[in-house]
Amino acid sequence: MNLSLQPITAANRKEALTLKTAPGQETYVESVEQCLKEANASSCWRPVAIYDDGLLIGFAMYGFFPEYLPSGRVWMDRLLIDQRYQHKGYGKEAMRLLIDRLQTEYHCRHIYLSIIPGNTTAASLYTHYGFRFNGEKDIHGEHVMVLECI
């Protein structure tokens, strides 16, 4: 496994739009199309394709949001591994790569994400990497988790 994160561009956008969750997961993460619409509407977002040696296996989106006082928040907001590539370890490796990227890019002390209640698979993955529920809910009513970066 040799994962990399690449920006979504005109060259890979069409292929990224083919990525899908497995049946039953549709309510856990927005579609790539919806994510890209949000990224077009706000420059805070950074949508990325997840590749394994040139094979597109997933999508993620993260960003920095200054409106959270006093110093803003870094959010790892979306992670989607295509249904064809789930249960192969890609989610764990992609999460590790994303955490490293966010710490390097933003020099942050905390990384936030939110999760829909009932998404126990994602909660387990995030907890594995040190994310903990902080008692907050985001603007959509999802439960917020935070990772304290060292």
Summarize the SSE layout with pairings.
Layout (H helix, E strand, L loop, with lengths): L2 E5 L5 H4 L15 H10 L3 E8 L2 E11 L7 E9 L8 H17 L3 E6 L4 H9 L3 E6 L5 E6 L2
Parallel strand pairs: 4-5
Antiparallel strand pairs: 1-2, 2-3, 3-4, 5-7, 6-7
Question: Would you summarize the structure shown here?
Answer:
By secondary structure, this protein is α+β, with helices and mostly antiparallel strands. It contains four helices and seven strands.
Q: What Rg is obtained from the alpha carbons, in whole angstroms?
A: 14 Å
Order of helices and strands: EHHEEEHEHEE
Please state the structural category: alpha+beta
Largest sheet: 7 strands, mixed
H/I helix tally: 4
End-to-end distance: 26 Å
The number of E-state strands comes to: 7
Please state the overall shape, judged from the principal axes of the Cα atoms: globular
Which residue ranges are poorly predicted, with pLDDT under 50 across at least 5 consecutive positions?
none
Strands ordered across the widest β-sheet: 1-2-3-4-5-7-6
Percent of residues in beta strands? 25-35%
Let me know the average pLDDT: 91
Question: What is the helical fraction, as a range of percent?
Answer: 25-40%
